[in-house]
Design brief:
Helix content: 40-55%
CATH superfamily of one domain: Histidine kinase-like ATPase, C-terminal domain
CATH topology of one domain: Heat Shock Protein 90
Strand content: 15-25%
CATH class of one domain: Alpha Beta
Low-confidence stretches: none
CATH architecture of one domain: 2-Layer Sandwich
Number of strands: 18
Shape: flat
Mean pLDDT: 78
Strand order of the largest sheet: 8-7-6-11-10-9
């Protein structure tokens, strides 16, 4: 027999018994009435009527009892279903009354926080106590806002679990009401999004690293004299991996000599570093690096058998050495030190590899530049060699970046791939300017010729289905090689941002450029076809590397100004001093 049928028959039996009991009570009452009062009672009065009415009343009571029990059973089943759904929900859910007291908490809170539902019931402030200190003020302010608002609120913050683990929570809440509109408190959903948050944080760090490496590469290639190159290497090194001390050591023959250093004066080791010359065979660790051309990470120098200890550098506890290689030659090594054990990691070594490559190219260019300055008789030949090497180096960098972009695409990292493409475009702009300067033997260039070539080079990144016409007005204005290099980056960035943000909905467009001079000031104006197009460009990425380069180069290198036409927003003007004049 099914449980449901058994349940119904059981309660039907209760109804029949109630009917019989009712009839029996009335019949007994009638007999007692005759015995006590002496009133004669007939069959109808004594038996039939009592049985009829008593039995009927019993039936009614029995049916009412059956209905009441059926209703109670449904309520119980409904509560069981609700409890099952609530207790087995994956997210951490809870309901608090208008006074902030917990009405219900799902057991899943223990999986997420490490604390049971009873712990939260016993300590209503526990949900605040477990919030990460850096996020607590924000969450408390959010909770106060919830109390007086019917909106659905969303917030992401960190908590510290009972085991000390940091987890990210996606919090959603809203006020709840009964059918009569009475406020019943607030319902809250907390979802563990730690995996997603960590992935997003890693993506942000990767993007920041890529942008930093862009600037590092551009900054290093902008210097040609050795002292500036050495100083900039240590500047950019600290941006990527903070250190206590660092030095650039160059290899000449079989001897290592420190060419530039930083930080040793804080450890009373400046005099020793200034005069330190090391035969390669006296430093086995460095000798192995030069032989294998592989970086070295020493987490704790006190545990490294091959580490050479000097009295002045005994404080060094963690160390990285990066080889500086150009083609088939080892130029030297780049060293970082820390007075804290285990300060450096394998991740730091990976960060430094692109810097070491860029530094090697910069050092080689500086070497060639100094050689050109020392030998005036072979200036033309050496300069041609520098041009050739720089061009080859730029081509090699572009090739490496294309390979890295393809690699990034395979790993489904579109943000990093876009950053690499931006860097490729910038270097192509520098290569265009370098080609023109090489062809002119580093004499002043016609500005209209330079602008035309740079715009057309940058437009190679535009979608193939977009037609962009270029019209540069003829002009006899010339610029110096230094101005040409600076303008290469500025114009390339402007056109790249124009393609990215102002060309979104246009199938075709036209860029016009005209050049004028007023009071020894050159004014270069670039005009787009759509209204407000350069307003969009200049407001698109206020904190980006692109706009930073544009504004910084125009202000500090060209000593000029850049502004967008206030009326239409479609023309951008760059003004700077005419250092050559009209020809």
């Amino acid at each position: 027999m099914k449980p449901k049928n058994l349940y119904l028959k059981q309660h039907l039996l209760y109804g029949i018994i109630s009917a019989l009991a009712g009839a029996l009570v009335l019949s007994v009452f009638s007999v007692m009435q005759k015995a006590w009062l002496g009133v004669p009672i007939g069959v109808w009065q004594g038996y039939v009527i009592p049985i009829f009415f008593g039995g009927g009343a019993g039936v009614i009571i029995g049916l009412w009892y059956i209905r009441l029990n059926l209703y109670a059973k449904k309520v119980q089943q409904s509560e069981e279903r609700f409890r099952t759904m609530a207790d087995y929900t994956y997210d951490w859910e809870y309901w608090i009354d208008p006074k902030g007291q917990y009405i219900y908490i799902t057991p899943s809170c223990k999986r997420i926080t490490g604390y049971s539902a009873d712990a939260f019931q016993q300590d209503p402030d526990l949900s605040i106590k477990i919030i990460h200190p850096d996020d607590r003020a924000m969450v408390i302010q959010h909770f106060h806002k919830e109390l007086s608002n019917d909106k659905i609120f969303s917030l992401e913050f960190r908590i510290i679990t009972r085991d000390g683990e940091v987890r990210w929570i996606a919090h959603k809440c809203q006020r709840v009401y009964d059918d009569n509109g009475h406020h019943l408190g607030r319902r809250v959903n907390n979802r563990d999004i730690t995996d997603r948050a960590l992935a997003e944080e890693a993506e942000r760090e990767q993007r920041l690293l890529a942008e930093t490496l862009q600037e590092v590469a551009l900054t290093l290639t902008a210097h040609v004299d050795l002292p500036s190159v050495l100083d900039e290497i240590l500047n950019q090194l600290y941006r990527l991996v903070p250190y206590s001390t660092a030095n650039v050591t160059l290899l000449k023959g079989k001897t290592l000599r420190i060419a530039h250093w930083r930080g040793y004066e804080a450890f009373n080791a400046a005099e020793m570093i200034d005069t330190l010359v090391q035969p390669l065979d006296s430093v086995p660790v460095d000798a192995e690096i030069v032989r294998t051309r592989s970086p070295l990470l020493i987490a704790d120098t006190h545990q490294e058998p091959g580490w050479v200890v000097y009295k002045e550098t005994s404080w060094i506890r963690s160390h990285i050495t990066m080889p500086l290689c150009h083609q088939d030659r080892v130029l030297g090594v780049l060293r970082l030190d820390s007075n804290t054990p285990n300060k450096f990691s394998d991740e730091d070594v990976q960060r430094l590899e692109p810097l070491a490559n860029a530094a090697s190219i910069a050092l080689e260019n500086a070497r060639l530049y100094e050689q050109a300055l020392r030998d005036a008789d072979t200036k033309t030949a050496l300069l041609r060699e520098v041009n050739h090497r720089v061009k080859n180096n730029l081509s090699a960098i572009i090739g490496l970046l294309y390979a890295e972009r393809r690699h990034a695409g395979l790993k489904n990292r579109p943000a990093y791939q876009a950053i690499i493409q931006d860097l490729i475009t910038r270097i192509q702009g520098l290569a265009t300017a370098h080609t023109l300067l090489s062809a002119s033997e580093w004499q002043p260039l016609l500005l209209n010729h330079l602008v035309n070539q740079l715009i057309r080079t940058a437009l190679q990144t535009a979608p193939r289905n977009r037609q962009i016409l270029v019209d540069v007005s003829p002009s006899s204005v010339q610029v110096t090689p230094q101005q040409a290099s600076s303008l290469a980056l500025v114009i390339t960035e402007l056109v790249t941002l124009y393609i990215k943000y102002a060309l979104l909905e246009q199938e075709s467009a036209k860029l016009n450029a005209d050049i004028t001079t007023i009071d020894r000031q050159i004014q270069l104006r670039i005009r787009g076809t759509s209204s407000g197009c350069f307003d969009v460009v200049m407001q698109s990425e206020r904190d980006s590397v692109g706009l930073y380069l544009i504004n910084n180069i125009v202000k500090n290198e060209l000593r000029g100004t850049i502004e967008v036409d206030q009326d239409t927003g479609s023309t951008i003007s760059i003004s700077f001093k005419n250092k050559v004049g009209m020809f």
